[in-house]
Amino acid sequence: MTVVETLAPVNHSGYTDNVYSGKQEHRAQVNAILEKEDAIPKHRIESEVGWFYDTLGLDDMYFMVEKPETVAGHITALYGSSLSSSNTSKAHSVGFESRYENGAMFIHNSVPGISKTDGVSYEKM
Q1: What is the pLDDT, as a whole number, of residue 28?
Q2: Dist CA 80 CA 32 (whole Å)
Q3: Helix/strand/coil (H, E, C) string of the chain?
Q4: Can you tell me the distance from the alpha carbon of 72 to that of 58, in angstroms, rounded to the nearest whole number?
Q5: Beta carbons of 42 and 58 less than 8 angstroms apart
Q6: Would you tell me how many other CB atoms lie within 10 Å of the CB of residue 110?
Q7: d(CA 98, CA 51)
Q8: What is the pLDDT of residue 69?
Q9: Per-residue pLDDT tens digits of the chain, which is 125 residues long
Q10: For residues 85 and 92, is the Cβ–Cβ distance under 8 A?
Q11: What pLDDT, on a 0 to 100 scale, did the predictor assign at position 87?
């Protein structure tokens, strides 16, 4: 595993951004896995991977601890979910939220306005 480098604190809470120096190599491995699996059309792989690595807002710690195979699986699942929702009259089945005053990022499949009391309750952690 590559050594973790950190930047200066980004807010008054003392949180520092993680910087993964092996991120580009990790990304290349994910691209190669997705090309080999052939579940996502080759002309879409770079944009899907780019969105996941650059736009979604995941902390580099995610890429440090997850194997490229796992990340490729997550990208494939999200792509499949978007295809599934585009082929039905249902709203997109996966929601994405980012809140950045002190940092947060949520990926969920809950329906807005409907409360469920059973389940893991990650939001209470």
Answers
A1: 98
A2: 18
A3: CCCEEEEEECCCCCCEEEEECCHHHHHHHHHHHHHHHCCCCHHHHHHHHHHHHHHCCCCHHHHHHCCHHHHHHHHHHHHHHHHHHHCCCCCCCCEEEECCCCCCEEEECCCCCCCCCCCCCHHHC
A4: 15
A5: no
A6: 13
A7: 14
A8: 95
A9: 344 444 444 455 666 778 999 999 999 999 999 999 999 999 999 999 999 999 888 889 889 989 999 999 989 988 987 777 666 655 555 666 656 566 666 666 666 666 666 666 655 65
A10: yes
A11: 63
Classify 113 in phi/psi space as left (phi over 0), alpha (psi -120 to 50) or beta. left
Copy the structure tokens of residue 117: 């009391």
- How far apart are the C-alpha atoms of 48 and 101, rounded to whole Å? 26
Residues 6+ apart with CB under 8 A from 36: none
Q: Six-digit token pair at 3? A: 């050594």
Of 73, 84, 88, 60, which Cα lies nearest the Cα of 1?
60
